[in-house]
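Example record

The entry below shows one chain as it appears in the dataset: sequence first, then structure tokens.
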Amino acid sequence: KKYDEAKKAFEYVMGKGKENPFYAQSFALKIHTSYLQYITELPGNKAEGEKVAVQLKEGLDFLGMNSATLNLIQENAHLLAFYLDKSDEAIELLKKSLLIPLQKTEEWGRLKTEMADIYIYANDPWEATLLYSQVIDGNKTNSLGDDVKLKKAKLGYYLGNFSWAKAQLDVLKASTSKLTANDAMELSLLIGNNLNLDTTATPLKMFARADLLFFQNKNLMAMATLDSLTEIYPHHTLVDDILFRKAKIEIDRQNYTLAAEYFEKIVDEFSYDLL
């Protein structure tokens, strides 16, 4: 993650001239590095995000939109929607990219999955559901199909369709992809442990709403929702899950000391519970 050093290395290779066989690859990877550096180190700085968006656009103009630049297309769309709040522009870019003659179903599947994620960001879950279903149908023999089934189940969870979501997650617990299986098990346990014990699903709906806000990269609103949930239901079974979720967010923000405090609180105050 020494992004500045990496960019210097790519610039060195590019300095050998456009005729050198690694020029295009170095050009693309330098832009990719700028994108990673932005989302890791400066995600709240829109001015810096705009600079990276310009680099991505210039990169696609130079390299063209083809199967070799799908990563840049996807990163450009993700940056526009989730960091610069330009979901319409991102969706238009992905629609154009779907006109590229692609050989593998996984390739258009990845683009459609990104588009579905952006529709969730734009609060259009029905369009997202349709796209997820298309990707699942076209990718039954590879891991992308299971990954997107998990996304579709999470969308059901965000919308408060807990029983349906849990049924999908319980099937995915047997997924060949260990990461997908683990994530499915974690969310299934969360739903099962906090739905059956309560006469109302309202607290879990609030928690799911916070998770949706986290997915939409609206971290401040998500944290505020979790704080409200703690105030309204201070003795609910979700309190340790709230602390765990906050800890994971602080890890993403690289606030490790604060994350450790949340984990410590779970150990001290909820030693009898699952987490």
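Notes for this example: The chain has a mean pLDDT of 92. The chain is about 75% helix and 0% strand.
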